[in-house]
């Protein structure tokens, strides 16, 4: 009877150990925290801070061979466009399409709206 109790304990310990070594598919960096701050404290996260933090996250991901999460380049492109920096905006939008080709139609729409302003 005592031997039967060890099996569930071992399985539970193994599953717990596996759960803590979980790898994510994408590198998010501080992006999620940045978005939370943008929506919970509107106006407090200026464009310069966003550009800096996102570029730092991208540089870190590239240095470690990690995939930048979908939408990060698009967000960066919109911020550059808001600042009137269309060359960097276009570059960021093109990177989003390059790494996530399924987003091409959406990104092309964002680019046309950004260019119209």
Automatic annotation (TrEMBL):
Keyword NAD found: no
Cross-referenced InterPro entries: TPR_rpt, UCP020555_TPR-like
Signal peptide start and end residues: none
Segments passing through the bilayer: none
UniProt keyword Transmembrane helix present: no
Keywords for this protein: TPR repeat
Residue windows of the TPR repeats: 70-103
Protein name: DUF4810 domain-containing protein
Species the sequence originates in: Litoribrevibacter euphylliae
């Amino acid at each position: 009877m005592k031997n039967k109790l060890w099996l569930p304990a071992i399985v539970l310990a193994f599953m717990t150990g596996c759960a803590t070594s979980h790898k994510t598919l994408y590198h998010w960096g501080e992006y999620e925290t940045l978005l939370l701050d943008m929506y919970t404290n509107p106006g407090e996260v200026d464009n310069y801070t966003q550009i800096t933090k996102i570029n730092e996250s991208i540089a870190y991901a590239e240095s470690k061979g990690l995939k930048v999460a979908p939408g990060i380049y698009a967000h960066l492109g919109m911020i550059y466009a808001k600042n009137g920096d269309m060359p960097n905006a276009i570059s960021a939008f093109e990177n989003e399409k390059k790494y996530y080709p399924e987003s091409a139609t959406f990104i092309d729409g964002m680019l046309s709206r950004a260019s119209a302003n």
